[in-house]
Automatic annotation (TrEMBL):
Source organism, top-level taxon: Eukaryota
Main location: membrane
Organism ancestry: Eukaryota, Viridiplantae, Streptophyta, Embryophyta, Tracheophyta
Keywords of this entry: Heme, Iron, Membrane, Metal-binding, Monooxygenase, Oxidoreductase, Transmembrane, Transmembrane helix
Species this chain originates from: Oryza punctata (Red rice)
Entry's family note: Belongs to the cytochrome P450 family.
Cofactor(s) this protein requires: heme
Protein name: Cytochrome P450
Amino acid sequence: MSELVKNPQVMQKAQAEIRLVLQGRSRITEDLIYLKYLKNIIKETLRLHPVAPLLIPKECQESCKILGYDIPKGTIMLVNAWAIGRDHRYWHDAEVFVTERFEEITVDFRGTNFEFIPFGGGRRICPGITFAHHLPPGVTPDGFDMEEEFGMSVCRKRDLCLHPILHVGVEKV
């Protein structure tokens, strides 16, 4: 949500796509396959902000050599998903939130594309972006605080508080 608030043009495009697909309905479960731009937003968000920056440690089952380094059997290995998602060898403008980068490529977050492994495997994602959001008075998207606090999972250093506004035409549930 922080990236959407910081990039209002992306949020507006996503809202337009959702409203077009929903056509006034309030449930989108069977329509998710048609929300291609929303999927790109989710992928780009997970690329920059993986749920767990370091994936679950794995133990080497046999000795091997990686990039010239000898790795003995039993070594505990960590994969830095945060660094991979920001690696300039794989991503142009790696530090910039650009949803369009996923329009031409087919990488997925299920763990088969090693340049994009925000989870290291599958996980459900809830695309609850059918509401408009506004920043508090005096806060602009350019000055929006995106600082993160690192630990076992990455979270915002300061809490994000958004106020949803019901879109006209969406039936109440």
